[in-house]
Every structure is written in C-alpha cells, then in structure tokens.
Amino acid sequence: MIYQDVERLKETIKGIVEIDKQGAVTIQDRRKLREYLIDELAYNAVFNPDKKLVEAIRWLIRRIGSALGIIPCSIQPFYEAMGKEELKGFTVPAINIRGLTYDAARAVFRAALKNRVGAFIFEIARSEIGYTYQRPWEYATVIIAAAIKENFTGPIFLQGDHFQINAKRYAKDPREEVEVVKDLIREAIEAGFYNIDIDTSTLVDLSKPTIQDQQRSNFELASELTAYIRQLEPQGITISVGGEIGEVGGKNSTVQELRIFMDNYLDSLRKKGRDLKGISKISVQTGTTHGGIPLPDGSIAKVKLDFDTLESLSKVARSDYGLSGAVQHGASTLPDEAFDRFPQTTTAEIHLATGFQNIIYDSKDFPSGLRDRIYHYIKENFSKERKEGQTEEQFIYKTRKKGFGPFKRELWDLSADIRSKIANELETKFDFLFKKLNVVNTDGLIKRYIKPKDIISPAPLDNLL
Prior knowledge:
Blueprint: H1 6-13, E1 17-19, E2 25-27, H2 30-47, H3 51-67, E3 70-72, H4 76-83, E4 92-96, H5 101-115, E5 121-125, H6 126-132, H7 136-149, E6 154-156, E7 158-164, H8 167-172, H9 174-190, E8 195-199, H10 211-232, E9 240-244, H11 255-272, E10 281-284, H12 307-321, E11 326-328, H13 341-344, E12 349-352, H14 354-362, H15 368-381, H16 392-399, H17 408-412, H18 416-436, H19 443-449
Parallel strand pairs: 3-6, 4-5, 4-12, 5-7, 7-8, 8-9, 9-10, 10-11, 11-12
Antiparallel strand pairs: 1-2
Helix pairs in contact: 2-3, 2-7, 3-7, 5-7, 5-18, 9-10, 10-11, 11-12
C-alpha cells in the first residue's frame, strides 16, 4: 500500500509507533509493527513517489530500529582485536544483496539468529548502487527494516564495498573522478555506512619498473580518501576503512606488494595528520574473479584459489601492521568445500555477491515469464557489452545482474509465497556459509567489543511530530 500523504502515514502508525514533539520514537505494539507495519514502511521507503514522505519514512524506520537496539556500527574495534590476535578462528562474511533485498536480508537475519551470529556485514559496491537502483539510504533502510521484521537486535554493519576509482574516467579527469567517489563516501556515511572499502587498486600500473612506482597512485589516493573519511566521521565513531593492493581478476598479490603499499600508505597518511588512523584490513588478489568464470554452457568454471598466498598475506598484515588480515573478494561462486579453508588461513573477511544472485535467478520458483522478460531486456539494452566469442549463456550470466534495477518493483511485487520460497533457499545458503566460516556464536563477541553509538538526525517533516 502506497501512502498518499503524511496524514495517511500518521494514521497508519497510530497505536503502534508514537513520535513525541522532540522526535523520540516509542514502540507501542511490537506485534503489529512486525506483523504488517514494517512491511508497508519498507515498501513505501523504496517506492513512494513523494520524496519528502520517503525521507520521513526512512527516518522513522531508522528511529524504530534504534528504539529496538538495531544500530548501524563500525566493526573497527572488533577488527583491531583481530589484529592483536585477541580474536581468531573465523572469517567475517560481507554480503552484497542486489535484488529482493528486503526478503534476502530477512533470510540473513533468520540464519544469524538461528546460529547466534553477530559478525557479518551487509555491503553494496559503487557499481551495484548504479545498476540495482539502490542508493545508500535506501539500502540501509531496507536492511534495518528486515532486522525489525525478524526481531534481530544488536549492532549491524553496513559497508561501502569497492568505492572504486574508475581508471578510464580518472585518466580523463583525475580530480573529477576523485570528487565523485568522495561524494559517494559522504552520502554513505550519512546513511549509516560506518565501514568503507576504498578501492584505488584500479590505478596500479604494472608497466612501471618498480613495485613502489606501480603502487604509487594506489597508496597516495588511498591515503587521501582515508583522511577524507576521517573528516566526516560522526563523533564517537571510528569508521573501519579497507584498502586494496590488487584488482580482483588480475595477477595474484605478493607479500612484497603488501609491504610496499602499507609502508608508503602509512607514511603518506602521517603527512596528512599525525593521529589519523589507517585501514583495518587489506583486500588482495589470489585467483578469483567477480562473478566467477562462466563456461560456454553458462556453468561456472572451478577456480584454483591460492590459499597459501592468502595465508601469508593475512599473516603479514596482522603481525607487521596490526590489521585484521587479508580480505578475499569474488568468493561466492567458489565450490562449497573451499569455504572452511578461509578461517584456517586466517582470512579476515570475504565478499559474497554473485552466488546469491544466482540462487534468485536460477530458483525453480522464480517466475519463468519474468526471467524471460529480464533476459530480453538485457539482450536489448546491453548487447554492446557482449564480448567476442561469448555464447549467449555466458553473456546473460555476466550481465543479468543489471536486470535488478529496472525490474526492482516487479521483484518486490512477486507473491509472498514465491518470495518466501526463494528466501528460504537463500537462508539455507547463509546458514551454510555462517557455519563454514565459523562465525557461529559470535554474537556475544560482537556485543563485547562493539559499543553502539546512536546518531540522531532531526525529523525531516515538522508535521510528522
């Protein structure tokens, strides 16, 4: 149901949620809130055409979440403890949700509650924000709404993934491209993303004669963006910042590259401010590629991931620089037997995205007619992205992620039964990953190290109060 105006919103929440004249929110009826109201609020936060009303609804969901103890946080203290080896034996999953976001996030929270998992992250990349039509405020709001629906309480971690410098645009106008990324960083922080992964590894130039020259643009710009993030931090919050030394899909990273990047990055950061805190983790390349490598029939090739390299990089990152460890991207399409290797090699964090997209599209319960229309749209609008020699199956597999934005509302409007069945498939996968990555029973550890800081913004509509 789409609310026509603020009066309709106030009428709907009456007796369930109370907002006093100072903007404080009190929950009066938790059953009705979870039974139907939060579903309506989430839907309106995404699809209501009235932008002012959307701002009010997103603010309200954030305040309801806060009243229930659901607060966006930085994972920084937890990662600092990992860097000191006070915490070890697990790998934190960072989950990208591209479509059916509300239902998929609910599935994450159900699996987390069942396994008492506290160490997990929701993230969205710069590129995903574009093709899924999910700006940071929307993504954050839907995640919080899903937590409310599933009765999850505690810190939640929202992360900007691959806030990446586009190398081609940077070559044309470096400062303009940097400003675009800075604007995105500001927008994300305002939305409650207190974990930001900077990706300037796109500027690594392997044609240069020395590793320092190869990494120069990377470490200089990474330090500039880190300093910028520190300027924007809300009081009492230290944002967890990630760096990257090797672009995913490129050549494997080395310990020497890590050392040269870190030494020069930290030196550059010190010149910008003596007390500026650096990154908490480092993303590396060890043999994966985003989305996996599709074979001519559309199936995914098995990737040989270099766990020895991953382990040595993670060890040096912790022992020499106090980081939580190395981060593995492009992991969701790896074979199931690979996932328990990540805790064994002390990988700090892995990023998971395409595998969940595949579950959605390939589900037997996904309507075939809608899938056909999405694929037709892909072929009509993105044919120029088809590479020479690609089969249609390979092209569709690599490009179908771009159907989530244009068909977002149709996906939300699928019947509750269909959405529930697909979400149950996702929940099974999340349950599997939480166990394999050994983050079961980490809720207590999160509560020990993470002390939520509630950032309160004024209500955007005076007549809402």
